[in-house]
Amino acid sequence: MKNKSILSVVPWIYDFAAYDLWMQPLGLLRLSTQLKNLGFQVDLINCLDRYDYDLLKRLNREKPKNEQKYGCGKFYKERVEKPQILKDIPLYYNRYGLPVDIFEKKLDKFSRPPDVILVSQVMTYWYPGTQLAIKILRKRFPSSIIMLGGIYPILMPEHAIKTSGADQIVSFSGFNRVFDHILKVLGVRNIKTGKDTFENITRIDYSFLTDKRTAVIETSKGCPQKCRYCSQHIINKEQFRLGSIKVVNDIEYYKNKYSSKYVVFYDDAVAYKKEKYLIPILKGVKKLLLKDISFHLPNGINVSEINEELAVLLKECNFKTLRLSLESSLPSRQLETGGKVTNKDFKEAVRNLIYAGFKPKEIEVYMMMGLPGQSVEEIKDGINYVFDSGAVPVLTSYSPTPGSYYYEKFFKEKLKDPLMHNSTIFSLNTEGIDEEMIKDLRKNVKEKKTALYN
After folding, report:
1. Angle (CA) 353 21 311, round 5°
2. pLDDT digit string (tens) for 86-107?
3. Angstrom distance (rounded) from CA 2 to CA 40
4. What is the pTM of this model?
5. 178-213 tens-digit pLDDT
6. To bridge 422 with a disulfide, which of 20, 125, 322, 406 should be the other Cys (CB 3.0-4.6 Å)?
7. What share of the chain is helix, strand, coil (3-state, %, to 5)?
8. Matching CATH number, 212-453, of 3.20.20.70, 3.40.50.1580, 1.10.3720.10, 1.25.40.10
9. Three-state DSSP class for 232?
10. How many CB atoms lie within 10 A of CB 323?
11. What architecture is domain 5-185?
């Protein structure tokens, strides 16, 4: 196996806006770690690495220019020409990530072509970054087998097959299933990876990344909910799975080995069956006395799960980023999208968090713009409702994801090009709203937050 080599690549983002909110290629890191542990030569190039040595050297900086709290910040970007289908969008279109020539210079360091190149992409509408990376890799390493995986080829396999340029499209999920497929491509047999559980998926080797301050944690896979705007049930077709409270040991390991400062939960349903998993995990974390580590929940937590015990534990464990899932304060919208939340549950969750010691400005709430049939008044009413409840709204734009109820009912025949899935476009589809209105909404949220809580 020492004679076999693998190159993992995280491609660029092409979009109107992008922000590094603890963005790590978790699936690709897991695969790379497991392959390295088996004795393969594994390298990883992350085009979205804000701390890349070559990038910072070119910028004559010791750290990224726009470094913000808890390791997040803005990507380096270069303006590029908009595809024809996006010409009418009144915004600049950018390539986010490393300059192309820096990526190519990293490839110069390889003395021989990798046997397999793993490329992973998340958003369907970021596929231009995937195409560019594969085009460069194909020209440089014509004999290498290029495999494309991630959410994009799972949701749109036919588009990925036709346009990506990859040799193989991995359009299925499940860590061990994907890993076994890679081993077969490498010509390796008789390695049993076992049952696909979190216990047997190895810890991440963060030496693949330049910035090791952030450790990403998943305590579950998939989501038991089937919200009409979400495709999680397609991305993870297996039944929703909970992990192990052994994740507490992983957190301690990352702190000791990599001096990690920020622990980020990537779960889509982190508090589901909380009495069995999340609460014991937090009790274990509390015993570790990790005073110099902050914890973060950027993906949103179901408000119906936040009782007094959980709220207190979140505070005691030093959670600094706490985002709740509400999406809309309109009861009919809540029922229509899946019925996972009610205003009563939301207000009780906020009360519990404030009782536990969280300040209102620390309680952030996702509110969606651009949902089918949504009015500007619904958005504004939701913003006011969240502020009146003692929290802060975070405006997020709806993106029609293939496989979701809304996509299949309203958009499947209209959106042949994944570029049209872009969330920026769909927030502009709300009746009576335009780019200036969105700017005003975000500005008003910021000003009201400052006036109320600063």
Report:
1. 15
2. 998 889 999 999 999 999 999 9
3. 5
4. 0.93
5. 988 999 999 887 666 555 555 556 689 999 999 999
6. 125
7. 40, 20, 40
8. 3.20.20.70
9. helix
10. 19
11. 3-Layer(aba) Sandwich (3.40)
